[in-house]
Amino acid sequence: QYLLGSMYASGRGVPQDYAQAARWYRLADERGDAGAQYSGGQMHAHAEGVIQDDTEALQWYKLAAEQGFADAQYNLGEMYDSGGSVTQDYREVVRSFRLAAEQGNATAQVYVGTSYHYGQGLPQDAVEAVRWYRLAAAQGNARAQFNLGVMCVGGEGIPQDYREAVRWYRLAAEQGLVQAQTNLGFMFATGRGVPQDYIQAHMWLSLAASRVTGENRERAVKGRDLGASRMTSEEISEAQRLTREWDAAHPREP
Question: Lowest-confidence range among 35-49, 172-186, 240-254?
Fold first, then answer.
């Protein structure tokens, strides 16, 4: 019943029909299928074939979450966090995200790590923050990789290690995370954890500047231009070439 509902929802093998999807999900829900409960919550949350109803979505997510469905636990945390038509409840946010994090949801692991890092909803504990960031970073989560870089620079919950910070920043920067690109650019500019390299600094700061606005862009541009004042025209041309090549190899999502 759940799989048939999924086929109707996605239009695979049958014309897409959200009403039929909802019908089959409800039948599966009556038998306690967590996947159907989660999918029912998704339909109500995103108005897919049914009227958008956050309260109804919350109830579906709760049913799936109580059965240990990690995605439902994560979505439940998001709903409690955003408030809106659902009463904001930070205790439930942390509880739901932690349940999802313990099942390997990388985004939830970052949230738990951040909660420990800043003492928001959990006791401040840099060592615990690092532990959760590592779990998410091992799954390739760019935000966790960036956060680990920050912790390595500051020596929070982990020995200060600029080389390790550069490694984490690079992993996140290669995924297009602007903050990581900016910080990596400054590491190259100052020679912290890596041999000083104005060409690499120029490239990473240019990439960051092209992806943000406001104060963050100004910071990247200022750093790039300061380094450029110490570069030859040939070095600047090389940095610009590398920037174009990286951009071409990493197309942005529309």
Answer: 35-49
Helices (H) and strands (E) in the chain, counts: 14, 0
Instruction: Tell me how many degrees the CA angle 205-141-67 measures, rounded to the nearest 5.
Output: 155
Give the integer Cα–Cα distance in Å for 54 and 16.
23
* Rounded (5°) CA angle 152-153-159: 45
Q: At what angle do helices 54-66 and 70-82 cross, to 10 degrees?
A: 140
Q: What is the pLDDT of residues 88-143, one digit of tens each?
A: 888 899 999 999 999 999 999 999 999 999 998 899 999 999 999 999 999 999 99
Rounded Cα distance between 42 and 60, Å, is: 9
Note the residue count of the chain. Answer: 254
| Contact between 132 and 112 (Cβ < 8 Å) | yes
In one-letter notation, the amino acid at residue 101 is: A
Q: Is 248 left (phi over 0), alpha (psi -120 to 50) or beta?
A: alpha
Average pLDDT rounded to a whole number, residues 205-228 = 96
Q: Within a 13 Å sphere around the CA of 197, how many CA atoms are in the beta-carbon half?
A: 15
Distance (Å, whole) CA 142 – CA 250: 15
State the Cα angle at 213 between 106 and 188, rounded to 5°: 70
Tokens coding 62 = 């709760």
pTM score, two decimals?
A: 0.85
